[in-house]
Amino acid sequence: MKKRIPLSANQTTIRKNQLSDDAFVPDAHQHFDHPHKVMLGLYISVFLGMLSETSMNITLPDLMADFGISSGTAQWMVVGYMLAIGVVLPCVGFMLKWVKAKTLVLFALVCFLVGAIVCTVAPTFPILLAGRIMQGVSTGIALPTMYAAIMRVFPPHKIGAANGVAGLVIMFAPVIGPTIAGALIGAFSWRAIFALFAVVAVAAIVCTALFFVTPIERTRPKVDVISILASAIGFGCLVAGVSLISDMGFSAVVIALLVVGVIVLAFYARRQLTIADPLLDLHALGIAAFRTPAIMISCSFSCTLAFMYLVPQELQRGMGLSSTVAGLLMLPGGVINALCTLAAGRMFDRYGAKRLVWAGSALTVIGGALFFMIGVSTPVALFLAAHIIVMVGIPFIQQSAQSAALKSLPGRMAADGSTIMNTMQQVCGAIATAVATCLLGLGQTNYTAAGGTNPAQGFVDGSRYGYLFGMVLVVVVLACSFLLKEHHEEPKLVPVHVDVETLAV
C-alpha cells in the first residue's frame, strides 16, 4: 500500500511541477534563498520595456521633423507600442501554461533586441514603427510574467514589499527615461536611444539565462485558436479606432474599427467565461476584491500616461525649452516617484490600501490643478512643484491597489490575474494617450478659433484639456476606493498529501 504523508514547508526537494496549482503551500516559497536574484533578469526586462514606453514622448518633436509627419502620426510610436502590448498580454497567461517562463522571457528579450536594432537603423517611419511594435510584444510578455513570478517566488507576507520593488523597477524608467532621452538627442540623435535599448537588452538576456528559474507550473490546456484571434482583433481594433480619431475624426473607418472592436471583445469575454480551457480566466473579474482595485489601477495608470505624454511636449513646444532641459526638469519628480513607489509597497503591508489611495488621490488632484497654472512664461519652479506632487501621489494609488488586487486571488489565478490587470492598464493607457492627443488638438483648435495667434500658447491651452481628463480619472479612482475591501488575514495553509512512491520516480 502506498504511504501518504503531509508536505512540510521545509521539504524543498519535492518536484513542484508534479503538483497541481492548488497544491502550492505559501511557505514553500522560502526555498528561494535569493528571490531578487532569481527575478533580476525579469526586473531588467520590465525596466527596459517601461524605459522604452516613457522615453519616446520627448522624441516626438524630433521624429516629426525628421520624417515630416504630423503629431497624430508620431503618436503611434507611443500608441502602437501599447497596442502591441495590449494584443499580446491576454495570451501570456495561456502561454505560461504551455511554455517554460524562462524560455518565454528569453524569446521576448530577443524580440526586443531585434526591434531596437531595427529602430536604430530605420530609414523610414513605417520601418521605425515596425521595430517599435516588436519591442511592444516583448514588454507585453515580460510584464505579466514578472508579477506572476513574484506571487510564486516570494512568501505571502512579503508580497506587498516585493510588489514595491517591482513598482520601483517600473517607475525608475520614467525617472531617468526623459532625462536620458533628452541628453542623447542633444548629444547625438534619437537613434542613440534605441542603441542604448539594445545594450540593456543584452544585459537582461545574460541575467535571465544565468539566474531565472521557472516558478510557474505548466498545465498545457487545450489551445483555443478562436479566442486568440478574437483577442488580437478585438483589442487591436478598439485601440486603433480610438488612436485614429485625432487624425481622421469620427470617419466611417474609425467608427467601423470601434464597433468591430467592441463586438469582438464582447464575444471574446463571453467565450472565456463559457469554455473549459479559456485563454484568460476572466472569472477573476467576478471577485470584487480584485475587480475594484484593477479598475483603480487602470485609471491611475491612464492618468500617468496622459500626463507623461503631455508634459515633455509642453515643456518643449509650449515653454520653448530644449529636449535636454525638458528631460532634466522631469528628473526630480521621477526620483521622488521611484522612492515613493518603494515606500508604498512596504506601507501597504502595514496600513492596507484604502488610506494610501486616499492620500495619493488628494496629492494627484492638487498637482494636476497646479498644471493648469503653467503658461508660456511660467517659472520652472511651478512646473517642478506640480510634477513632484503628482509623482508623489500616483505610486500610493498604483502600488496599493495592485498589491490589494493580487493578494485577493488564489494562487492558481495569479498568472491570469496579473495578465488581466496589465492588459487593462496597457489598453486603457493606449486609449488615454489617444484621448489626450484628441483633447490637445481640440484645445489648440479652440484657441485658434478664438483669435489666438501664438502657437506656444495654443499648445499650453490644449494641454490643459488633457490635464483635466487626467484629473477626472483620479476622481474615478477616489470613488472606487470607497468600495475597496481590506484583507488583513494571512492565507490559511492547507495540508497537501503527496504520493511518496510517485515522487521517487
From TrEMBL:
Principal location: membrane
Residue intervals of the Major facilitator superfamily (MFS) profile domain: 38-488
Membrane topology: Multi-pass membrane protein
Alphabetic keyword roster: Cell membrane, Membrane, Transmembrane, Transmembrane helix, Transport
Lipoprotein is among the record's keywords: no
Gene3D superfamilies linked: MFS general substrate transporter like domains, Multidrug resistance protein D
GO molecular function: transmembrane transporter activity
InterPro entries (UniProt xref): EmrB-like, MFS, MFS_dom, MFS_trans_sf
KW Chaperone (keyword) present: no
Cellular component, GO annotation: plasma membrane
Intracellular or extracellular location(s): Cell membrane
Transmembrane feature ranges: 40-58, 78-96, 103-127, 133-154, 166-187, 193-213, 225-244, 250-269, 290-311, 323-344, 356-374, 380-397, 427-445, 465-484
PANTHER family tied to this protein: LINCOMYCIN RESISTANCE PROTEIN LMRB, MAJOR FACILITATOR SUPERFAMILY MULTIDRUG TRANSPORTER MFSC
Protein's name in the database: DHA2 family efflux MFS transporter permease subunit
Organism taxonomic ancestry: Bacteria, Bacillati, Actinomycetota, Actinomycetes, Bifidobacteriales
